[in-house]
Design a protein that fits this description.
The complex is a heterodimer of chains A (about 240) and B (about 190). By secondary structure, chain A is α/β, with parallel strands linked by helices. In chain A, about 30% of the residues lie in helices and about 25% in strands. Chain A has a single domain, classed as Aldolase class I (TIM Barrel, Alpha-Beta Barrel), CATH 3.20.20.70. The N and C termini of chain A lie close together (about 5 Å). The longest helix of chain B is centred in the C-terminal third of the chain and has 12 residues. Classes of the chains: A alpha/beta (about 240), B alpha/beta (about 190).
Chain lengths: ~240, ~190
């Protein structure tokens, strides 16, 4: 299982939110590049970059930062937030993203999704289906859809995506443990997808649980700093799992 | 030293370019035969679809150029697969440099294999000073079984070729440009051949 640290960006700074609520934003690193370098130093090899300004405005904002981090680290980077047109896709790729994190526009905008799947190899496409109270979220987690994860996933060409990332919004940033029941259900319905779990991971024990369910990756947010944030993180191995 | 990356129509080679630049090399991205012929090192990057790539190389007369190339050649991922006899992906005809057929992962495995996996039984100059059983980064749905030219293997449901070597031709199924310090060592080893 891959351990994937997340950098959520607002105004060029790395922040953490609770349940995706911008009002709860708390800056925890003013220099995202420095943070990325520290993560690499600790042994991480992946990075999940979330352009929250991009998600809000509907267009990627922090491409320069992406380019800088890609040029200065060895991290394999997935980038998401506001990618809604093929032009955005191309600019994110040319800024150095290895993987694009694309949301429900893959389902709702047929023209967009057709062009993305025609242009990009599957190893570059990560579908992000985020769930709150059993419903897939739209527009940066502000609107409930009427779809469950399974309903929405069935509308995706899963064989053209490298995997699916699923954030349980109600767990995100809460340090209360991940949604094991949700991920178990998903992997029961779709046993062959590469599932990346996001939200609520606290410690090694949570990672073992996700790994045992068959998750392919886990996103780490606040837990990178321990709980409470001043404590040392509780992971034995930052890099990966055998 | 002139390093050429073979340019395919569908290819995006940003991460290979970035890796080379970090090692002080600015590669030339081209499909122009005259330029490629003058390269000290040739890299076939790993993006696209085997069937389409095969047709492209044949149509542009690049297949023959690569087969006859005398300086070191490195194929990455699909770039390695295309060096083989054939691929199940789009029933592609390969360059026939490495004897063996590329197959699709079958059974209960999650495909593509993505992420870190170990490499074993490492042989040849590409793996000089590379740690046995090191972790490298993979993204692949197709694989070459272990064959005569295999110079390292990994395990994903079955044993498969992590790397191949024949004369001046080298191939790696994983992405050295995404494989951290060990990956950089492999690229450096190739550049110093």
């Amino acid at each position: 299982m891959e351990l994937i640290p997340a950098i959520d960006l607002i105004n060029g700074k790395a922040v953490r939110l609770k349940k995706g609520d911008f009002q709860t934003a708390r800056v925890f690193h003013t220099d995202p590049l420095q943070f990325a370098l520290e993560l690499e130093q600790k042994g991480f090899s992946r990075l999940h970059m979330v352009d929250l300004d991009g998600a809000k405005s509907g267009k990627p904002v922090h491409l320069e930062l992406l380019e800088t981090i890609k040029a200065k680290t060895n991290l394999v980077i997935d980038f998401g937030g506001g990618i809604r047109t093929l032009t955005d896709v191309r600019s994110v790729i040319s800024s150095g993203a290895d993987i694009l994190c694309l949301g429900t526009s893959l389902v709702s905008d047929r023209e967009f999704s057709d062009s993305v799947f025609a242009e990009l190899n599957l190893d570059r496409i990560l579908a992000a289906l985020d769930v709150k109270n059993g419903k897939v979220q739209l527009k940066g987690w502000t609107v409930d859809s009427s779809f469950s994860f399974a309903d929405m996933a069935k509308l995706l060409p899963l064989n053209k995506c490298y995997g699916v990332m699923c954030t349980d919004v109600s767990k995100d940033g809460m340090m209360e443990g991940p949604s094991l029941a949700l991920y178990k259900q998903i992997l029961g319905d779709f046993p062959k997808i590469n599932l990346i779990a996001s939200g609520g991971v606290r410690n090694q024990e949570d990672l073992v649980s996700l790994h045992n369910l068959g998750c392919k990756g886990a996103i780490l947010g606040k837990s990178l700093f321990g709980n409470p944030l001043s404590e040392k993180p509780d992971f034995k191995n930052f890099r990966l799992w055998d | 030293m002139k390093v050429c990356l073979v340019k395919y129509p569908a290819g995006n080679v940003k991460s290979v370019e970035i890796a080379l630049k970090r090692l002080g090399i600015t590669p030339v991205l081209t499909s122009d035969p005259d330029t490629l012929n003058k390269a000290d090192k040739l890299i076939l990057p790993g993006v696209g679809h085997a069937g389409e790539l095969s047709r492209f190389l044949e149509a542009e007369n690049l297949a023959e150029l690569i087969r006859g190339f005398k300086n070191p050649v490195l194929g990455i991922c699909l770039g390695m697969q295309i060096m083989c006899s054939a691929s199940e992906e789009g029933n592609a005809r390969g360059l026939g440099i490495v004897d063996g057929n590329v197959l699709k992962f079958k059974g209960e495995l999650k495909v593509p294999q993505i992420g870190w996996n170990r490499i074993y039984n490492l042989k040849g100059p590409l793996f000089k000073n590379v740690t046995e059983s090191a972790y490298v980064y993979y993204v692949n749905s197709f694989y070459l079984p272990v064959v005569n030219c295999t110079s390292g293997f990994s395990h994903y449901g079955t044993e498969f070729s992590a790397a191949v070597e024949r004369d001046n031709f080298f191939g790696v199924q994983f992405h050295p440009e995404k494989s951290g310090p060990e990956g950089y060592r492999i690229i450096t080893n190739f550049l110093s051949l």
